[in-house]
Design brief:
Layout: E1 3-6, H1 15-24, E2 29-31, H2 41-47, E3 58-61, E4 64-67, H3 69-80, H4 87-109, H5 124-151, H6 165-180, H7 182-188, H8 193-203, H9 209-212
Parallel strand pairs: 1-2
Antiparallel strand pairs: 1-3, 3-4
Helix pairs in contact: 1-3, 1-6, 3-4, 4-5, 4-6, 6-7, 6-8
Amino acid sequence: MTYELWYWDGLPGRGEFVRLALEAGRIPYRECARGKDAGRLQPDMAARREQPPFAPPYLVAEGMTIAQTANILLFLGQRHGLAPRTLKGRLWVHQLQLTIADMVAEAHDTHHPIDPGDYYEAQKGPAAKRARAFRESRMPKFLGYFERVLEGGASAWLAGRRWTYADLSLFQLLEGLRFAFPRRMATLEPELPRLVALRDAVATLPELKAYLGSKRRLDFGEGIFRHYPELDKP
């Protein structure tokens, strides 16, 4: 079966976390809202009356419409061996994914702390305050947590001796933070050697080599991770 992946055209966003799992797992899928098909997304979403998604990304798989990034990855992890086999292991990886999702949301709110539908320029003052708290408090707290998880583990991966979808998502989170907050990340990374090593290990996975080097891998810019120099300090 070839799954259908629905997400906004031109944005890596939350869809990229799903895309990395599909690519690394070598799971057949089709992008359904890119390029000339970009206009299909909203009509398709509106037409899904049974278990309608609140927002993209969503995956159409085996007669189901599965939304929410962590929920999609929970499904893919169990169905395609991208998570541990035990219930304990699967729940642990899901827990890590939800924590990643929390940080992703906070990273977005640094540039849109008041109204996600308004321009950044209309909320620059609150954004500066929110970004400062994120840089000085939340980034060390979240990233320090993942560093401790890796330190206490049995391998260089988050859960066991093989990568899981949570490792792929942590890679994407780190890539986004490097783009949005390069100066702050340069200060923090010397204290996070295991996280940096995990990022480098995912970047060189044979399963991802072709995808990461292709034009299908979208660049950061708009969306969740945005670089505003005034919001980034060491």
